[in-house]
Structure formats: structure tokens, C-alpha cells
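Q: C-alpha cells for this one, please.
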Amino acid sequence: MSGAEAVAGRLAALEARIAAACRRAGRARAEVTLVGASKQQPVETLAAAFAAGLRVFGENRVQEALAKAPALPPEIAWHLLGPLQSNKVRMALRLFRTFHAVDRLSIAHDLEREAGRLGLELSVFLEVNLGGEATKHGFAEEELPGAAREIAALGHLRLAGLMAIPPPTDDPEDSRPWFRRLAARGRALAGDLGPARYGGRLSMGMSDDFEVAVEEGATEVRVGTSLFGPRPARPAPAAE
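A: Here is the predicted structure, written as C-alpha cells:
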């Protein structure tokens, strides 16, 4: 089996699993977007996924995505999954229009300023640090209402919804309470802001737990290894 055939087979399997999770939750398959988390994957692998039908790709690093994009079809929708540094905002807007990890007000205002300069409208998810983990970015839950109101008032940012990565676990079921918690936070914001200012989407679920996330209301699932296979090892730095 070729590499392209393997990617196509994994994509078909993922689609079937997402569809089954939607049926269990009484949801339409169209409510869930599969975002291919393509960090460190070669262009050839991404091209194979596109040929098999994937249209939304997510990268963690701005420069890596900018290096890949010219060799891939322009129809791809690129989402930035990782945190964004202020000094990368202008560079990021050369490619990305959707940001899953807006983790502080200052970066939202940086995006607003640059989007205004370019005449763009951006979709942003607020990253929530549900577990209060020191190793993760994101807003604390008690910060969300105020931050969401401030960002929803900006002219060039569309507050799409919330994103979170639950604390690590060996059992996908252990992620379910965290997904429910994020969904509850989203419902509270929807009631506060209304549909005109809040999109109500939930970016949650990765390779190990995306089915549970779909059952709990995910609208975007970010899947890497289960779609593309293991990330290739980074080459060792050249000797000087």
C-alpha cells in the first residue's frame, strides 16, 4: 500500500468514526469539521489527504505553514492551532483566517489591529485552561466572560467559540467531564452575548478522544496521528 493510499484509508476510517459518534449524539455529520493537525508532516502527506477529500488543515507554527502552503492547493483552509506570538501576527495573516488558541487579550488586540489594516475578518476561538495547568496556555474560566465581551466587541474578529485541551489521560472517557465543562461555558457565553456576537462553536478533541468530544458537542476536532500517521522524526542538526 502506498503512502497516499494509507492516508486515504485513515481519512475514510476517521470519517466513519465521526459519523458514528454524531449518530450516537443525535447530531448531523455536517455539524463537525475535521481539522487535519499536520504539524511536522511532509507536504506529500498533506497533498494525499487533500486528494482524499480533506479540506481543513491545522498547523501549530506559522513559519512551517507558510513554507508548506505554496506547494499545496489554494482551496485549503488553514487554521492556526497553536498559540500565536505578537511578533508573528503580521506573518500569520498572510495565510490564516481562523485561530484556535487565542489565549490572552493582548493577542486578540494585535490580531484586530492587523486585520483592520488589511481589511480582513478573522474567526477566533478562546483557549480555556480548564485544568489550571501551568504547562498550558489559555484563559482561566473566571476570566472568560469579561474577555469574551471585550473580544466580541472588536470590529474585525468573529468570536467563533471556545477551545480546550483536557489534562492528559489514558482513558478517553476521562476527557468527557472536561468537554462537558467547556460546553457549559460556551452555553453561558451564548446566553450572555447572543448569536450575533458569539458563534457557539467548540474546538475540542484530538486523536485519542475525538469521538467523546463529538458526543459532547465538538464542532471542530483536531486530529493528527490518526489521520496522517506518526510524525516523521526531525533530522539531526548538521555538524558544524
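A few notes: The longest helix spans residues 3-25. The two ends are 39 Å apart (CA to CA).
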